[in-house]
Amino acid sequence: MPDDKSAALDGMIEKYGKYVFGVVRYFLYGEPHETHEEIYQEVWMRVCRGFEKFESRSKISTYLYVIAKNTVFSFLEKKKRERTESLEELKVEPQAVMRDEALRLTLKAAIDGLGEDEQRLLLYKYTLDMSCREIAEELSLSEDNVKQKLLRLRRRMREILGDCF
Amino acid sequence: MDDTAKKCSGMEDNIILYVDGELSEAEKRNVERHIESCSKCRKLHESYAKLDKAASALFVSERPLVKVRIQKTLAQKILEMISGLAVSQRFAFQTAVLAAFIFSAFFLYHGFLGPKLSSKAVLGRFVCPRFQAGVELEPVAGYFGAGEIFDGATVKAIETGTFSSDKFNVTFKSGAQAKLGANGIKLIAGAIDIDYFKKPAPVDFEISTPNSLIFIRGTRLAVSYLNSVTEVSVVEGRVAVMKKSGELILVAGDGAIIKKDGEPWRLTKNEIHVDMRTGELELKKNNDHKALDTLLRIDSSRSEKTGPVEITVKNNNEGTQPVVIEKGPVEKLFDYEVDLNSMDEKTRRLFFKNKPR
Question: Which one of A27, A62, A64, B354 is least enclosed by Cβ atoms within 10 Å?
Answer without folding.
Answer: B354
